[in-house]
Amino acid sequence: MVSALWIRLDEDEEVYGFIKSWYLWEESEDHPPGQIAPTPIENPDILEDVDYFLDIETRFMDFTDTITFLLSLTLLKIKILLDLKDLHQARQAVGPKVPQEVLDQILANIPRSSAIKANRRIMSSPDLSGEIARLDAQVDALYKKIHQTNFFWWRTLVDRPEDAIEAVVNRSHNGARPEFGSPLEAAIWITQRGQRFCWIETPGVLDFLREKNSENPLPRLSEVHRIYGRRADQLVVALYNL
Questions:
Q1: Whole-angstrom Cα distance, residue 19 to residue 224?
Q2: Looking at 149, 168, 183, which one is the last position of a domain?
Q3: What is the span of the domain harbouring residue 176?
Q4: Reported pTM
Q5: Do 47 and 139 share a domain, yes or no?
Q6: N or C: which end of the chain has fewer CB within 10 A?
Q7: Claim to verify: residue 11 and residue 40 sit in the same structural domain
Q8: What pLDDT score does 159 carry?
Q9: Looking at residue 59, what is its pLDDT?
Q10: What is the per-residue pLDDT across 174-208, written as a single tens digit (0 to 9) for each?
C-alpha cells in the first residue's frame, strides 16, 4: 500500500528507496536491535539496472508481497521511461526552433516524475536515446518476470472492467486460496493490493501495456483448465468471455 500510494503522489525517489530498502533488509541478517523495518534509502539511483531485483528470490512475508514490490517497481520504471521519451521527442521537435530559455521552460513542465525533474543531467541532455534504451530493457525484463509469474495479471489490469474483476473476487471470497498464477490470483492482486488505481492514474501507462500485451496472447482455455483445474474455467470465462 505504501509504494502504491507514493507513486500516486509522484514521490518516486521515496518509492524506489522504500522498495530497495526492503530487499536489502531481507537479505541481511544484521538488523539493528529493536528495529522491525528498514530505513528507506535516501537519494537512490532510480535509473539503475533492475537485475538485482530480478535475481533475488526473497519472498518477504509471503509471495504476494514480493509481487507487490515488483509491480510498483515496474510502474515506476514505465513512468520514468515515458517521461524520458517525452523529453527526448520535445527536445528534438522544438529545440531547434526556440531559444534555450524557452526550451528549458517547456522541458521543465513535461516530466511527471519528481526524480526526473530533479535530475539535471537528464533535463539538460541533448540526446536521451541511450537512457531510453536502457530503461526500455529494464521495463521489458520486469514485464516478463511478472508475466511468467501470472500471465493473467497484465491482461486483467488493462483489458477488464473493474466491476467484472470485483465480481470474480466476490464470488470466490470464501473459497480456498487461489492457485499461484491463476486468473483469480491476478484479480485479487488488483482489488486488494492497492495497485489498480496507481496504474490507471498514470498517463500513458495502460496504452504502453496494451502494446506489450499484444505480443503475449492469453493461453487457450483448455490449457488453463489443465494447469489450474475446473474452477479456473468459470473464472476465465467470467473475466474474458472465452
A1: 32
A2: 149
A3: 152-202+217-241
A4: 0.85
A5: yes
A6: N
A7: yes
A8: 81
A9: 44
A10: 666 777 777 778 888 787 656 778 888 889 999 99
Secondary structure string (H, E, C) spanning the chain = CHHHHHHHCCCHHHHHHHHHHHHHHHHCCCCCCCCCCCCCCCCCCCCCCCHHHHHCCCCCCCHHHHHHHHHHHHHHHHHHHHHHHHHHHHHHHHHHHCCHHHHHHHHHCCCCCHHHHCCHHHHHCCCCHHHHHHHHHHHHHHHHHHHHHCCCHHHHHHHCCHHHHHHHHHHCCCCCCCCCCCHHHHHHHHHHCCCHHHHHCCCCHHHHHHHHHCCCCCCCHHHHHHHHCHHHHHHHHHHHCC
C-alpha cell at 168: 470474480
Quick check: is 126 in a domain? yes
pLDDT for residue 161: 77
Which residue among 111, 130, 149 closes a domain?
149
Of 72, 75, 62, 77, the closest CA to residue 18 belongs to: 72
Q: Are residues 37 and 145 in the same domain?
A: yes
Distance CA 147, CA 155 (A): 10
Q: How many CB atoms lie within 10 A of CB 235?
A: 23
| Cα–Cα dist 56/66, whole Å | 10
Residue with cell 514490490: 69
Low-confidence ranges of the chain (pLDDT < 70): 27-29, 31-34, 36, 56-65, 173-176, 192-194, 218-242
Residues 1 and 30 in one domain: yes
**Domains held by the chain: number:** 2
